[in-house]
Amino acid sequence: MLLNLKFVVGLVATAALASASEDAGISVELFRRSDSPRYSQLDVERTYKHLEGINLKYLKAFANFLKNTGKEHPLKLKSHNKRWTASIDLVDIKSELEWGGELRFGTPEQSVYFDFDTGSADTIANPDAYVPSKSNTAEDTHSKFSAGYGDGTNAHGHVYTDVFRAGSIHAKKVAIGHSKSTFIPNSEHPNQGIAGLSHPSIQAFDSKYKPFFTELRDQKAVHQGVFQFTLKAGNGSTLELGRIDESKFNGKLTWVNYNPALGFYLMTAKVNGNKILAIIDSGTTLIIGPTGQVRSLLQKLPNVSMFTKDNTLYGRFPCNQPPKVTFNFGGKDFTLGKDQVSYGKSGNDCVLSVVGQDNLPLHAWVVGDSFFQMASIVFDQDNNRVGFAPQA
């Protein structure tokens, strides 16, 4: 649930079972409309709304961390007031702003499209998307939740456990939040829920009910405790659960360790040679950094001018002269391509997909989908590491 722009939905062709192996899961070919927002005028007000929503999302995660651990999260700014395998087919919900995939809960099965978010930890569905009373295996835990997301909205309701299925994966008593109100609007169809993929210390649910992938791993319902995002600017975006699909990337994965106790996929990195802390967050559209650090970056980029709107620092450049923005993870450079470095237009110029936020409530950069679209990223919960490689 991200920036509420013009409704765009990917056209899904018929589903076909992948032939690579018996447990390869389901593969669906995806199609996308070509009118990407990076080639249309930037709506600054709605972008700001999204950025403020991300700030609220992280503040809520910090509150959850305090509730779950009894400690303040070390990233929080004190001054400031998401034995089988499956291939989840990701639908482009809003022209590269959201990536929806299908999971199934209940008996009989109820299919729900979720937005997969590595920056949050809870799986929550709209009230009409998952209906516990229609499932013979749903169990009301009598535990309440309240969760905040990237557009500033909140979901609240009760936690249920139910049978879970995705491709050839099957698990019992997986937690799903049944929201009392519709927190994802119909304009985001087919998405009707959020599936958090981070670690339990930032979850809104009671600690007895783990994030869905952590539960799959603990039940040994997947071969490996790994999942892999490959988000493409064209067709073929996927989320692999329980395996690494090497056909999705070139060369070898470069691994970087993280501390799962902190909840987020947080690691050291560099951007154009400058050291930063980075959170890898599939539930964020842009790349967001503290204003001072982003200003330092933009000042050194040729042909880039800066402008500020609503406490947000933007960069603007001639569209035929894209600047070079390079992230380094584990000693491996990843340079944003022409499509990834731009996010919308301002007049005849392009707007940089890296922005600075005065209100960012943490000591880190939030590395979102603008980076995801040029790398295949593997999240390895078995070994507490994240792997990066250029997309094939």
TrEMBL record:
Pfam families to which the protein is assigned, alphabetical: Asp
EC number: 3.4.23.5
Keyword Transmembrane on entry: no
Domain of life: Eukaryota
Keyword annotations of the record: Aspartyl protease, Hydrolase, Protease, Signal
Gene Ontology molecular function: any one: aspartic-type endopeptidase activity
Annotated Gene3D superfamilies: Acid Proteases (2.40.70.10)
Chain ranges of the Peptidase A1 domain: 99-389
EC class (word): hydrolase
PANTHER family assigned: BETA-SITE APP-CLEAVING ENZYME, ISOFORM A-RELATED, PEPTIDASE A1 DOMAIN-CONTAINING PROTEIN
Protein name (Swiss-Prot/TrEMBL): Cathepsin D
Organism whose genome encodes this protein: Malassezia caprae
